[in-house]
Design goal:
- The protein has a single domain, classed as 3-Layer(aba) Sandwich (Rossmann fold), CATH 3.40.50.
- Helices cover about 50% and strands about 15% of the residues.
- It has a 5-stranded parallel beta sheet, with helices on both faces.
């Protein structure tokens, strides 16, 4: 799942992920994203930090505080790369920070890393 208020980011992320064989669900803000998390229960969530109405930190906290969804890896997408921003992301439960603009390799590598971790947990490796 990719949650971002920028149509450009959503579309480029969708193209990169689909080329890598991923099924992609898009959402344009935190509220839209939360409803789609409930509907689709994605394997991984990329979420923009700065969005109107419900920002990425707030949406991440809501996802991670829900027993049904807390194990889904949440990757924060941002152009803000300060120690404070990273710490705030960790406090709300994010699993990783990915700096924008991302490229195909960075987004696909992130998916592979987190899906492998999930497989290892599921199979006890």
């Amino acid at each position: 799942m990719l949650i971002d208020d920028s149509n450009t980011i959503r579309r480029s992320g969708e193209i990169f992920l689909k080329q890598a064989g991923c099924d992609v669900v898009l959402a344009e803000d935190g509220f839209d994203g939360l409803s789609k998390v409930v509907e689709h229960h994605p394997d991984l969530i990329f979420i923009d930090v700065m969005m109107p109405r419900l920002d990425g930190y707030q949406a991440c906290a809501l996802i991670k505080n829900n027993n049904k969804f807390r194990t889904i890896p949440v990757i924060m997408l941002t152009s803000k790369d300060t120690l404070f921003d990273r710490a705030r992301g960790r406090l709300v439960g994010s699993d990783q920070y990915l700096i924008k603009p991302f490229n195909k390799k960075s987004i696909v590598d992130t998916v592979l890393a987190h899906t492998r971790k999930q497989e290892e947990k599921n199979y006890g490796y």
